[in-house]
Queue: 4 jobs
Job 1
Amino acid sequence: MSIQDVDVLLVNPGSPSSVYQELSHQFSAIEPPSLAAVFATYIRLKGGTVGIVDAPALNMSPEMVAKFIYENYNPTLIVMVVYGFQPSASTQNMTAAGETCTALKQLNPHYRILMTGTHPAALPARTLKEEDVDFVCSQEGPQTIWPLAQLLKAGSDNFNAVPSLWYKRGGMAFSTPSSPLLDDLDAEMPGGAWDLLPMEKYRAHNWHCFDHIHERQPYVSMHTSLGCPYKCTFCCINAPFGKSSYRLWSPDSVINEIDLLVNRYNVKNIKFVDEMFVLKKDHVMGICDRIIERGYDLNIWAYARVDTVKDEFLEKLRKAGFRWLALGIESGSKHVRDGVEKGRFGTEQILQVVKKIQDAGIHVIGNYIFGLPDDTYESMGETLQLAIDANCEFANFYCAMAYPGSKLYTMAVEKGWELPDSWIGYSQHAYETKPLRSEALPAVEILRYRDEAFHRYFTNPNYLALVKRKFGQAVHDHILDMTKIKLRRKLIDEVDKKAEVA
């Protein structure tokens, strides 16, 4: 087998079994690394050669990834792309990313490795110090990756002209100024380099395909925007993008990519991975109109907010193939929501918006967080009751986490609140999960409440009746199978064991 010379080798690290435990076998998604894919397009348009290695899709351990690269590639620069499909996914993937870097350096100490992503951008100095990497990107990625690869290829070590770069020299850490973010996304990153990915491996979330539960492939997640205009306290999404970061691909560029995905890869199930899709009228309507003109039969889901769902959007979204909207409801307590800058809307408005979306023929996935700083048992009870009353077709229950790059992280450090022992501890579903405490409650009680809330919601007779009525007996039984999986929790096990001894 011949070794492939590439200017840049992008690596998507991760370990689904570590992150999701048994849920990874059947219920969670296997998502394509959408940002690595558009970064590859950027490099190609600059005239560079590029490859992508997707560890989760190929079911490779860090050691297997390193061996695969060693046997198949001769890269000028290896880039560990530690982004995720939600803000938390970056930090939770840092354990696998770091182990992969170490395995690579053990095979070839001369590999030059850059780490980019939400977590590295939030903690660039710490990442450079703690991980087996030569460089860290403190911003978005492409404008750092390409000039660095060019310098390394030319044999130069004058990194001062490379923007947003942290690097080591003589045991010291140095950094360069940031540059403006990419502005013309259509011209500089027009779609993903899907041909570099194992497209047959990707699988949609179970709920995304409740209308066709046995047809979760092919699947793709893609961007129509970068950044987010909102500043929710618990979110770290703006760490690599900055404060004025929200940029859009044009509807024409988006439909060109959908054309490719449908016609070349036969994709029907699509996630718009944007932090906030249902927002700008011209953008939303322009994309919907172009999909409708094509007559595609798609199954799309995207994020919205309670206060961005307008009546004029819904009919177009449904006609274009948007079958699900994800709402960040977060808490049943307005006081708690106000404390994390999550919009000025009340419980009645939340319930009205959920019903309005459902009446338009679009399913809703509600996202809820337990353990925000002002949370008590009473307010967490309000959140669970709101979830039960809203009776969305699916729900995600999270614990509040102090993700690096978020205001919660800064607050937790200032207060001296305990943080996870390892980066995998920031995963919502891992054995090592350790959420943030609240002002009133310890972390273990918040985690325990979250897991019990999950079980109560998905075994609730009203919810199961809704599922059976809308999706049939097979999905009803699928949900019950999901509830039989009990996540193992180190934090709970340790506390319970101490209580037994006492």
Job 2
Amino acid sequence: MSSARIRFVLNGEIVETAVDDPTRTVLQFLREDLRLTGTKEGCAEGDCGACTVVVVEPGSDGDVELKAINACIQFLPTLDGKELITVEGLSGGSGELHPVQRAMVDEHGSQCGFCTPGFVMSLFALYRHNDKPTRRDIDDALAGNLCRCTGYRPIIAAAQSMHTRRDDWDTAAHARLLNEVARDDDLAIEHQGRRFFAPGGIEAFAALCSRYPDATILAGGTDIGLWVTKQHRSLDTIIYAGRVAQMLEIETSGTHLEIGGAVPLARAIPAIVEQYPGLDEMFRRFASPPIRNAGTLGGNIANGSPIGDSMPALMVVGATLVLQKGADEREIALDEFYHDYQVNDLSPGEFVARIRVPLRESDAIVASQKWSKRFDQDISAVCTAYRLELSGEMVRDFRMACGGLAATIRRAAHCENVINGSSWNEDTIDAACEALARDFSPITDMRASADMRLVAVQNLLRRFFLETTGEAPETVYSYGR
């Protein structure tokens, strides 16, 4: 194992630094250690986007991959072997503005200016990914950036005009720098009783989990980061899954998608939506691009939050989890994984190695709905998912799962029993809505009251029925897009 130093590229220059506190955030390092204050802190929880930066990683065939992330909840050691670009690194060698920055100036996209660096970095990622973005592409790219001055119109205008100028991006040069900082061994940081491990193989990862069964397993950090920034928790031992090659793979077998436990949501979601197009809208509204770029499907599942939007959809399609402890694996259905609020079936030292998602069956209708106060970048008050197979007008198989209603995400057993084997009509749906009141005892919180949640989940089921009969559009994703 190596010493407590990491190497990465920062705005075109190789940086090597000691890490004493493994939970020091990238934002703290930039602002407090390097005095690169263009990156701002707004919420310290990955919601507002003021801290957005771009991470560059090696791609395939000499290419590189760029992704916007939130610096406020990303731990510094996770940058090892990568490249980080901040707003200070966008301007050219002679100081001229990057085309994104120039477009923001020309279109008057900056008002008070606090949120502007984050918007610029999200647009920079879009600039490099898509040279002809649609309005929907732009809105999606900016879903994780909040403007306090309501200045979205000129910012969108900047996004629409930024490609009239070209930058001097050199993929080969970035790939060479990444090759220089690439690590060929496992990373281990130990300082004053605190540890951070980042192994490259699943055998080493499993061994560390067995050796430190009470360790915090870190993937994207989009939830664990808040333990530090909001709850001020001290994490003594962290085992990072983001370098484990086998947990970063997506493979397709004859029957399943096999998604590694550390695959980011930004890669996992398109693979799932390709199989189940009816999940597109819900997953498009799943957090924001910076969160999806960092957060992982395995982490969302293992965390077990009752408002995790991926689990209802995965439950109804019959997803299973492959759990690993040491060299041993076992498989469990996702709808049997949760026992109580954030209590799951994992034993000490065990982890989610991969998620198995059944491939699409042509005659099954799969859909998911999200009800929240805000359309983009918001936590669900209720999230529902359905899988329906019909034989004529009779229901051959119906499944429904709900999140946001109770302490755990689970299937609606009474509702399913009413619908299965019945005619797919309004009378059946009315009876199923009554059964939902027996399936769940909704909670009351800042997002919705218990009564409102129950009415909402019943109405969402009715909407799904109307969608399947052609009496309602299959998407609400239409305004301004």
Job 3
Amino acid sequence: MKNIASWMKQGGPEGDIVLGTRCRLARNLQGIPFPEAASRDQLREVLQQVENVVPRLQSLGSFTYLEMGTMDTLDRQILAEEHLISPSHIQNPQHKAVILNDTSNVSIMVNEEDHLRIQVLKPGLQTEAAWQLATKIDDLLEEHLDFAFDMQTGYLTSCPTNVGTALRASVMFHLPALRRLKKVQEVLGAVSKFGLTVRGLYGEGSDVRGNVFQLSNQITLGQSEEETIEHLARFTDQILHSERQAREYLLEEDRRLETEDWLFRSYGILSNARTITSLEAMELLSDLKLGVDLGVIELSDRELLKQLMVQIRSAHLQKMMGQELPVQERDRLRASLIRDTLRSKS
């Protein structure tokens, strides 16, 4: 199987609750219409300009330029499942590209909603580190590309909500205890009043799966990048505190037995099921991760469950088998993969 992106394999600060951190910068080339309005020749011109500057990134590591139209369908889907490209970047792949570094924690989408979307992903809570690396990449590219910029408003983007710094910083939380206690809406419901938004597993328009929520900034105009990162960090601390309180509550003496029973039942299903859907597997793996993080259930590899949450997805399963599979066969293979993995690490 293809190696899982490094940010999904490794642990990081606050890794029991924060699965990962992402910083994304949107940029467009001066004098060329945004992708939705550009002609094929203009989109090809963007690809050519961007491909020419890839060697300039080598001071930050090894980078590979890949045109989406030349990639296998499953390979494109795998990149989306690992959050390295957006689901929309898979659609109509002609005249689109992605630039990946050798550890797959940096990706640059070309001709998505904007000409360039620079993404840095880090395991655990590392907003500052992700932003600093994204800024270095941006600076290197800007030495050789003429970005669309206005002195009054900042960087110009396809969507008006990104104009200004064009920075989107997000933190991916695993919040099973708050959801178990039906407190998620109470904790996350008010963030929109403070210029933040909560989305599902794959960002905008996606559903919540496996109790994974993404918190990100909405404001990019009239606020510096430093202020954006600091603002997100303050709310992240509040959410971390709330989830930790909820976990402590679940382990109090008068409800510990009920909590352990719930978590071990999920573990039992995962360890024995012969067929399982992606949605059910995500929910049960969320329970199991909570059990491991609380010390209720023992596994030798604490980061294993984060990897499994990726490996059980449809494209990864089919890539592992080297062929497209019907839904029923994917459900059987998913259950087998989970059983075998847990048996080897328990």
Job 4
Amino acid sequence: MIKFGITPLDNIFILDYLPAAKGDYVKVYLYALHLSARPREDMSIAEIAHSLSLSESEVDSALRYWERRRLIVRPGDNPPAYRFVSPAQLYAGGNENLEADGPFVAFSEDVYAIFGDRRKITPAEISRAYEWVQDLHLPQETVLMLLAHSIATRGIQFSFKAAEADAVRMCEAGALTAEDAESFFAHTRKVHEGTRAVLRRLGKRRQPSQDEMDLYRKWTEEWQFAPDAILEACSETTKGEPTMAYLDGILNGIRTRAANAGDKVQSADDMRRRMTADKGDMDAVRQFAYALGVKNPPATLQVIYQRLCRDHAPELVLLAAEQSKNAQRGVDAVEQYLEIYRKNNLTTRREAEAYIASVREANKALYRIFEACGHAAAPTAADRALYKKWQGMGYNEEMILLAAAQAQSAENKPPYIDKVLQAWHEAGVTEPAQVSARKAAHKTPAAQRTGKQVGAQQYTQREYTETQLDSALTDDILKEAKGSNG
């Protein structure tokens, strides 16, 4: 029978008692009702708690709740004993609303007096309020003050569930005396009035919900925004649906951006200054995206832009973005360009643009020089350094091209050109005519040769190309010639 029998349950319980009771309270009632049909001497609250996976205090609270509802009677306390009463019997005797608990009866009368004929209070609501006395250990006077406060702030038809959240906060804050409760209610009134002010600013003429007041409490207590600062931020809600949740996202964004900038927003002036700065930042991010050629920038682009601006001037960041776009590269290339600016000690856009122009002009010239010597490569920073050196030596592009022509058969062409020009510079060669004269001076016409040869002429002669002859001005070739002559 314990396993396969039936536990009878009055329909009156389902209709009148079950809807107002907590789920755990119903679990305890049904399980205890089941046990009462087959009582044992060793039954205990601990057994019920273990069977239902509840704590003993939770089981005890549930039993006291049903005792206040007169569905169970406690004939003894040592050990605790309970007897179930049929709801039908209570209805038959006309005593369904009477309570056996004297303090509870007195509490009920005080609650009825607060509401009077303005609202019909149900026994379930009174029982819920009395749980704040029993479970949260709030004095009855404090709970009655809470009910009166809820009427004043939320209206006569307020939800006892919403008031319960305040009761929990009072317990956590240790508001156990009338003076503590007054201080708590004064703060709660400020939260309520502040939330209503925000709702009116958002165009909503109604009482705030508990969730909305919790948001307002977070903004003012945790995030430390002044009430007028919150109202100032409401102007940003015109871009979307003006709700408290939307405003919460706006305030969180403002708070985060201020923290990233080493700033803190509290007053209305702080809020206006921060929002102005944020608008400027957004304009800068849009300019950055335009410079990159990005039409629909992702949200991460603002983070990237702010990170780059922490180490580089914004004007240089935009210039690097333009370079990246012109080179058809992505946002990752921006940092590479900025690193080039840094290594070259470029601190302003004008300096960087001048540097870029000089690189561009040097590259154009180097491409022509490389073409003249048959060097199939792109100019590097080292090549540009050589080109700058050659210009510093006083050589124009025409002279450099002549030197390049001499490097066609060289393996390392740019260094070879440098050696030729260095040799010319040391010899005072500055014009193309001098180059031609030097070439002619190093040639030995056949008509000038004599038939008689002396001992000094008895050596193996090398055949030099025109390039090698011209390069004889360099130290290496001169040493080679001396070595060949012994």
